[in-house]
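Hi R.,

As promised on Friday, here is the backbone we talked about, encoded as structure tokens. Could you run it through your design pipeline when you get a chance and send me back a sequence?
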């Protein structure tokens, strides 16, 4: 017998007749006609050189050859239906997979506590890793599966190879220790510009948004007294000095010490999106789909419909 002559539909026909012992019932189960079932049976009889089924007392009884091949045929059909044609399934409760995120250091402190709390409840055996990569390295890592999701502000991931889904938006605020004399009863633009400031020179792309907005508005740059490489140092210094700092809202809400107050900026603050990004190779991957849905449930705030997704934009519903 030439295996090229056997197709999936012939095997399904054999299995249906074997189970039903009736051409009529088999046709009904498969949603087709009796002549179609009979035609398929005749093809199988020729291929296997055996009658396969013989009518006995109004039932189609299998021949010894049919009984021998029925088990392997059923196994092949089940494998095709579950592993090839079926919808992939991911079970977080039993998985030991490592999930790899790309986030900034601020993203780690903002996202990870809530992620871990959720995963302790629904994915107790999974592990997690956070990396921080340059834009070029991040694209490569996502394409080859080294990074499952990038979360935060990643304006470079806008090519057709990437999907993105907006989770929320953020803006900027000013922080100062309680009682800072430069703030007074209300932080005015004049006080903001006259006060000494501390800034963090980090790779945080959102700070570029603030600088572009300031330049476009022709606003003066505040007087920078001190530059530090990390936001953690900035927050500690603000809490102990009279320096002001302009930071993303999530930084202030998540990390600011108790004696540090959050003030609205005395000018319009630009808004930037916080999104989850993934490579199109993993758009239909069962684990990645589950992970994205979990992040959406944790972090997505009410956004307008336009914020919700295409390649290079949020995920289609």
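Update: got your reply. Pasting your designed sequence below so it's all in one thread:
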């Amino acid at each position: 017998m030439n295996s090229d002559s056997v197709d999936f539909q012939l095997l399904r026909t054999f299995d249906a007749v074997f189970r039903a012992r009736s051409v009529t019932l088999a046709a009904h189960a498969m949603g087709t006609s009796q002549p179609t079932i009979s035609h398929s049976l005749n093809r199988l009889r020729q291929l296997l050189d055996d009658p396969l089924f013989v009518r006995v007392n109004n039932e189609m009884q299998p021949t010894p050859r049919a009984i021998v091949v029925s088990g392997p045929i059923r196994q092949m059909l089940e494998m095709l239906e579950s592993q090839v044609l079926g919808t992939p399934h991911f079970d977080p409760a039993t998985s030991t997979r490592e999930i790899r995120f790309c986030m900034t250091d601020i993203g780690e402190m903002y996202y990870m506590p809530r992620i871990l709390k959720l995963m302790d409840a629904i994915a107790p055996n999974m592990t997690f890793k956070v990396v921080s990569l340059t834009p070029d390295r991040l694209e490569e890592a996502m394409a080859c599966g080294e990074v499952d999701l990038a979360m935060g502000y990643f304006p470079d991931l806008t090519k057709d190879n990437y999907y993105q889904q907006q989770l929320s938006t953020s803006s900027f605020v000013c922080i100062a220790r309680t009682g800072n004399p430069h703030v007074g009863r209300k932080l005015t633009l004049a006080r903001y510009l006259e006060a000494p400031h501390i800034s963090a020179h980090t790779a945080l792309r959102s700070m570029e948004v603030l600088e572009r907005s300031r330049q476009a508005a022709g606003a003066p740059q505040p007087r920078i007294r001190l530059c530090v490489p990390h936001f953690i140092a900035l927050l500690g210094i603000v809490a102990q000095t009279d320096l002001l700092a302009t930071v993303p809202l999530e930084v202030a809400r998540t990390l600011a010490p108790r004696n540090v107050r959050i003030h609205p900026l005395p000018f319009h603050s630009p808004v930037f999106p916080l999104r989850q990004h993934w490579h199109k190779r993993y758009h239909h991957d069962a684990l990645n789909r589950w992970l994205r849905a979990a992040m959406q449930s944790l972090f997505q705030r009410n956004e307008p419909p336009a914020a919700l997704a295409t390649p290079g934009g949020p995920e289609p519903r």
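One thing I noticed while checking it: The first helix runs from residue 8 to 20.

Thanks again,
M.
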